[in-house]
Amino acid sequence: MYQLSGDLQNFSVDKIADLKNKRIVLRACLNVTVDKEGKVIDATRIDESIKTIKYLAENAKQVTILAHLGRPESYSKELSFWNVHQVLQEKLGQEIEFVLFQNSPKNLEAKIILGDNIRFFKEEESKDPDTRMNFAKDLAQFGEVFVNDAFADYRESASTYDIAKILPSYLGYKFIEEVEALSKFSNAANLVSVLGGAKLSEKLDALKALAEISEKVVIGGAMAYTLLKAKGVNIGNSLYEEDKLSLAKEILNNYENKLVLPVDHLIASEFNEVASKSAHVTLDEQVPDNTVAIDIGSKTTELFVQTISGAKNILWNGPMGVFEWETSAAGTLAVGKAISQNSSAYKLAGGGDSIAAINKLGLTGFNHISTGGGAMLAFIAYNEFPTLDIVINQ
Questions:
Q1: How are strands ordered across the β-sheet holding 346-350?
Q2: Do both 207 and 151 map to the same domain?
């Protein structure tokens, strides 16, 4: 796990000297959930960004906001920030000048400027460091100081990493909040980690790191079936990653005493919502041929809840099943409730699916909810966090 050295508050946005005379380039996290027309349907990340944006809007000479939405390969109307701009403007209660991708935001006099989706520019995530740096130099022209408040966007890019090599750099309130919350787990006693979601490969490094520091690692969702397959359990037609079976066997050999895997399953004849309405629970951990697991079963739910109930620290990332379907949401709801209702534990949840489940199922009581699931796991899995290191080591 990343070990924080020094006081992050020394790099807080409110430590910027002579702010009233400074133009700020702010990298925010506005990667919200939108529909096919680009309409915002979950504004959580906008809400999380407001505190830093508002502080800079009220105190700086000018703020130019950079952010991304989705993973576009070129300009697309549905991933443009026009709708995000409208929502952000309403929540901020202040006019924001929106600059279209096709235009150049140079020499604008507006107090707050929102540039269009930064990932419309291929230079943003170029694998060539010189290309990224040249783009970062262009971005740096819009301010004298850089502020990074995009914890969730942790990968090295021109607007999250390279620009911090050019301008004096600070951290936004949300970035600091995320790091401080996650740092509590570096020496957490009686930690139970709860992992779910689709792919073991996406959480492999984090799983190993969490297995080292946790008393138990509870694993549900589709990622559990790669491990069960490696264990020799019949998983029917359940989703798994064949190319990760050898790694799954290695994890089982090293950490099997810490892993808590499903012992029964809610199964359906096919992987679709219609078939889920006729789902039933298996007798044991074996998934019959020609069926697919869509949620954990009742015995597994009891086992997972019991494991969670005694924890003093809990980290949750990922649902236990297809919680979007009414008939297969019970496992995620029960586990989520067990976490949120453990009044004696410090509880942290993170990741897009976890947030969606928390919101959909009306779960409350978490000490911290991270908007960056991948970033949260990277913070746990590795000793480096480049977008943070580049600021505190400048």
A1: 259-260, 216-219, 191-195, 313-317, 346-350, 368-370
A2: no
For position 108, what pLDDT does the model report? 75
Does residue 390 form part of some domain?
no
CATH number at residue 53: 3.40.50.1260
H helices of 93-222, in order, are 129-140, 173-183, 204-213
Total residues belonging to the chain: 394
The last residue of one of the domains, among 150, 175, 200, is 175
Domain that holds residue 347: 184-381
pLDDT for the residue numbered 106? 56
Q: Which residues contact 227 (CB under 8 A, 6 or more apart)?
A: 200, 219, 248, 251, 252, 259, 261
Domain count, the chain: 2
pTM above 0.70, yes or no: yes
The phi-psi region of residue 337 (left if phi > 0; otherwise alpha if psi is between -120 and 50; otherwise beta) is alpha
Element (H, E) at 337: helix 330-340
Considering only residues 222 and 104, tell me which one the structure prediction assigns the higher pLDDT.
Answer: 222
* Residue 111: partners with Cβ closer than 8 Å, 6 or more residues away: 57, 62, 63, 94, 95
Return the half-sphere exposure (C-beta side, CA atoms, 13 A cut-off) of residue 41: 10
Cβ–Cβ < 8 Å for 81, 98: yes
Residue 101 has pLDDT above 60, yes or no: no
Q: Answer yes or no: do 107 and 214 share one domain.
A: no
Give 343-390 pLDDT, tens digit per residue.
999 999 998 788 888 888 888 899 999 988 889 989 988 999 999 999
Report the pLDDT averaged over residues 2-13.
Answer: 91
Q: How far apart are CA 4 and CA 220, in angstroms?
A: 30
Q: Would 2 be classed as within a structural domain?
A: no
Paired strand residues for 346? 313
Domain co-membership, 249 together with 351: yes
Question: Which residues, including other chains, have CB under 8 Å from residue 67's CB and lie 6 or more apart?
Answer: 27, 28, 29, 30, 31, 81, 84, 114, 117, 118, 150
